[in-house]
Write a structure and sequence with these properties.
five-stranded mixed sheet; four-stranded antiparallel sheet; 21 strands; elongated
C-alpha cells in the first residue's frame, strides 16, 4: 500500500477561465498569430497545435490570466464537460476560448501530470456524476470544481506513477499510429482497386428487398431466434461481417418483416437514420424498414459489393431525400451504379486484399483496447494506493 494524503483542488491549484474578450468576432480568427485553444483541439489528452485557430497578439495580451504555459492542465467546463488536455510543446503565445478552465499548480504539492490522470479516472467521473445529477445546467462551475477532493502520495511517488502511466500511453499512441497507417493503406487500396470500366446498376447485381417492423406490442413476433437487424446494429462496425442483432424475431415475426429470412452472405445497407451503413450478414436474417438487403447474384462477390458500397456513403446521401431525416428510396438504390469487374475471381481477389488490410487495422484497434483496459486497471490501483508505485518497473 502507498501512503496517500487527501487534497482539495482549491488548496493546491488555481482555476482561470476567459472573462474578457467581449465581442470577439469570427472574422478575428487568423491563420497566424497567437494560438487560440478550444476543446475541439484536445486529442488523446494533448493539444493538436496544428489545427488551432489564431488571434491577434492584442487579443492574446488582453487577458494574461489565461496565457498558457508548459505543464498547464486544461479542462472543458461546458459542452463536453470534463474533457482534459495536458499542455506540452507550448508555443510562445497561446490562449483559451471561453469554455475551458486553466488549472495551474499553486504550491507544488501535486504534480499537474498526476492530476491529469486523476481527472481521467473514475474518481473525477464519479465526482462529475454527483454534481450534475438533478441540475438543469450541465456544466462545471468554478465553485464546484474547487470542491473536488482527491488523494495523492508524496511528490516523488506521484512522479513515478506518472512515469509508469505515460509509458503505457506512449505504447497506446504508437499502436494508434500503426492502426492509422494500415487504415491509410486500406483507403489507398479501395481507391485503387474499386474502380473499373464496367458499371452496373445495383438491381442487376442482385435482388433488392425492403424490410419492416412487426407490431412491437404483439409478443408472438418477438424474442425468437431469428436475427433482425436495424441501422443501430450496423453503427460502429469496424469490420465487414455481422452475425447477430440486438433484438430477435420469431418465425411469425420474420413473415411480417421480410416474408422470409434472407440468405447468409447477403449485403445489408441502411436507407435511413442514417443512410449508407453496410455489412455482409453471415447468417440467415431479417431486418426493419431502415434497411434494404441485396441478395447477390451468383456472379457477384458479396464482400466486393460491401467494400464498394461502404465507400459510397456520401454518394448515397446525395440521391436521398427527406426533411426530418434523409431516406434512400428503393428506386435510387436500384439504379445506383456499381463499378465491378466481370470476373468474380477478380472481385474476390480485390476484396481479399482490402480485407487483409482491414484485419490488420482491427488487430491494432483490439490491442489499443487491451492496453487501455490494462491502463484503467492500473490507474485505479495506483490512484487508490492499492499498488505501491515503488514496486513497478
Amino acid at each position: 500500500m502507498t501512503s496517500m494524503k487527501k487534497h482539495t483542488l482549491i488548496d493546491c491549484f488555481s482555476l482561470r477561465a476567459r472573462i474578457g474578450w467581449q465581442g470577439l468576432r469570427s472574422d478575428e480568427f487568423k491563420t497566424e498569430g497567437a494560438y487560440l485553444v478550444t476543446g475541439w483541439d484536445f486529442i488523446n489528452g494533448r493539444i493538436n497545435w496544428d489545427d488551432c485557430y489564431h488571434v491577434s497578439v492584442d487579443r492574446y495580451e488582453q487577458d494574461k490570466g489565461i496565457q498558457l504555459r508548459e505543464n498547464d492542465l486544461l479542462v472543458t467546463k461546458d459542452g463536453t464537460v470534463g474533457k482534459t488536455a495536458f499542455v506540452v510543446d507550448c508555443p510562445e503565445q497561446a490562449t483559451l476560448n471561453s469554455h475551458i478552465f486553466l488549472v495551474r499548480s499553486k504550491d507544488g504539492s501535486v504534480e499537474p501530470a498526476y492530476l491529469y490522470y486523476v481527472l481521467n479516472s473514475y474518481i473525477f467521473t464519479d465526482f462529475m456524476k454527483n454534481i450534475l445529477t438533478g441540475t438543469t445546467i450541465k456544466g462545471l462551475t468554478q465553485g464546484n470544481f474547487y470542491k473536488f477532493v482527491f488523494e495523492a502520495p508524496d511528490v516523488p511517488t506521484q512522479k513515478k506513477i506518472v512515469e509508469v502511466l505515460e509509458a503505457i500511453d506512449a505504447v497506446i499512441e504508437k499502436t494508434r499510429e500503426v492502426a492509422q497507417k494500415y487504415s491509410n493503406i486500406k483507403l489507398g487500396l479501395m481507391q485503387q482497386l474499386l474502380h473499373c470500366d464496367r458499371h452496373m446498376p445495383l438491381s442487376k447485381l442482385g435482388t433488392i428487398i425492403s424490410g419492416s417492423t412487426p407490431t412491437t406490442s404483439d409478443e408472438k413476433y418477438w424474442n425468437g431466434k431469428n436475427v433482425w437487424l436495424t441501422p443501430a446494429d450496423l453503427s460502429g462496425m469496424t469490420m465487414p461481417f455481422i452475425s447477430d442483432s440486438s433484438r430477435h424475431l420469431t418465425d411469425a415475426g420474420v413473415k411480417k418483416a421480410t416474408g422470409t429470412l434472407l440468405p447468409a452472405y447477403s449485403v445489408i445497407i441502411s436507407n435511413r437514420a442514417p443512410v449508407g451503413y453496410c455489412a455482409v450478414v453471415t447468417v440467415p436474417f431479417s431486418y426493419n424498414q431502415g434497411c434494404k438487403a441485396v441478395k447477390c447474384n451468383s456472379d457477384v462477390d458479396p464482400l466486393y459489393l460491401y467494400y464498394f458500397m461502404s465507400n459510397q456513403k456520401a454518394a448515397l446521401e446525395r440521391v436521398s431525400s427527406g426533411t426530418t431525416f434523409l431516406e434512400l428510396p428503393k428506386k435510387e438504390l436500384a439504379r445506383f451504379l456499381v463499378s465491378i469487374p466481370l470476373d468474380i475471381d477478380e472481385q474476390k481477389n480485390i476484396a481479399e486484399k482490402i480485407l487483409a488490410a482491414d484485419e490488420k487495422v482491427q488487430a491494432e484497434i483490439d490491442y489499443v483496447k487491451k492496453l487501455d483496459n490494462i491502463k484503467q486497471g492500473l490507474v485505479s490501483d495506483l490512484l487508490s494506493g492499492k499498488v505501491d508505485a515503488g514496486t513497478l518497473k
